[in-house]
Amino acid sequence: MQELTPFEGSHKPSVGQIADYYARQHVFMEEQQGKSYNTRRRYKNDLEIFSQYLEEAGLYLPEEELHNNPQSWGQISYGLVAGFVQWQLKKGYAIGSCNIRLFTVRKFAKLAFKAGAVNNETCQLINSIKGISPTAGRNIDRDRQTKRCGRKKATPIFLSSEQVTQLKQQPETPQGYRNLLLICLLVDLGLRCGEVGRAGEIEKLTAESITFSNRTIRFYREKVDKWQTHRLSHDTIEAARKYLPTIQANGPLFYGYKGKALCNNTINYIIKQSGKKIGIANLSPHDLRHTWATNAARNGTPLHALKEAGGWTSTSTALSYLEANKIANDGVVLG
Fold it and tell me: Which domains does the chain have, with CATH numbers?
């Protein structure tokens, strides 16, 4: 018969001790149950990078172990975590990425402490490691040759109205109609990449998501757990009229291989290639969301309305999507 608990000797554990033991073993699972798909994916990616560092340091701990087994964290020390920050800087990771991964490691160390795998002193020491401040980050970047690696850009690309018009000039083919509608939803309505395609277990767009009678689209925003209805722009409704007759009514709105909804990577590729055709390198769906927010703000959209339309939880996040004015005090009105 398999033992229910790790208690040794003749002492019979109490019901409370058994309950505590099992609660501790499930802290990792419970933490991730309440998180969005994107957050869970980020945890896995962060721990994969941490695992690579540990292997170079001489400790083999696969990402799966770090992600699922609290006991594996018993081998993690304060020195290893402090060294992880410096290792990332030498590898050329962006300051923001270093800080996010440090946050993930500290979070899992805390969970491992709750599971009884990490002692209190080690947990406190690990959580005393601070992220890199913006000022320190600028100084660090001045002294290192590689400041960023990976696909993510340091700053977004903002398109002019002329460039948006050029981007919308797609071939008169079913694929061209698809790409045009995709572009319109991203740059005219500001949808996120995962909201138009397939990301995790989100509700997918279908042909029925668009209502021609009142020119609207209804979709789910997983990031804020909210359904929204948006009014379609003229270009978007015209693109939909051309595209929808080419797809199955009960299938995904944007489909690819074997009729499955487009994944984020494919959508990124479509936008990148469309940008390349008009002379813009490395254009991404998120650049189109930044462009939408900036255009909306500069045309007089109140900040609270922009926040609601963009599916953000704070006005500060909405502000971070806007391109800075070339003249800093443009728009300032003095009495």
Answer: 15-143 (no CATH), 161-319 (1.10.443.10)
